[in-house]
Design goal:
Structural class: mainly beta
Strand content: 5-15%
Helix content: under 10%
Shape: globular
Distance between the termini: 15 Å
Number of strands: 4
Strand order of the largest sheet: 3-2-1-4
Low-confidence stretches: none
Radius of gyration: 14 Å
Order of helices and strands: HHEEEE
């Protein structure tokens, strides 16, 4: 889900001070328009965050299972977007939009060269 993606990008803490997953210095942790040569790269060429996760910021947008939703001002634990609808959430960024808080939306049936998904399992 989008909430699980953000939890991992913020290194398991809600008060994480970083703009990008693992650093405030984008070049340390992300591939983006200034350093990617306008193409995707093999995962793990930049520094991992404290949880050992690479490329949570930059390289590609990652699909989340949530549908598009609007954030509310109230505090929510592990919110989930709608399970129906045609727009799904994208997180992580690619050429631009690499901050942890950046969000995108797309139609999963559409293909492009800067979105993908991360395999994860829960225990």
């Amino acid at each position: 889900t989008e909430a699980e993606w953000e939890y991992a990008a913020r290194e398991g803490t809600a008060d994480n001070p970083y703009l990008y997953s693992g650093s405030n210095a984008i070049n340390d942790v992300a591939l983006f328009s200034d350093n990617s040569g306008s193409k995707t790269h093999e995962v793990g060429t930049k520094r991992a965050n404290i949880l050992g996760l690479y490329d949570m910021s930059g390289n590609i947008w990652e699909w989340c299972s949530d549908g598009k939703r609007t954030y509310t001002s109230s505090a929510v634990t592990n919110p989930k977007g709608p399970s129906s609808g045609f727009l799904r959430v994208l997180r992580g960024g690619s050429a631009r939009g690499c901050r942890i808080a950046d969000r995108g939306y797309g139609i999963p049936a559409n293909r492009d060269d800067d979105s993908g998904f991360r395999l994860a399992h829960s225990q």
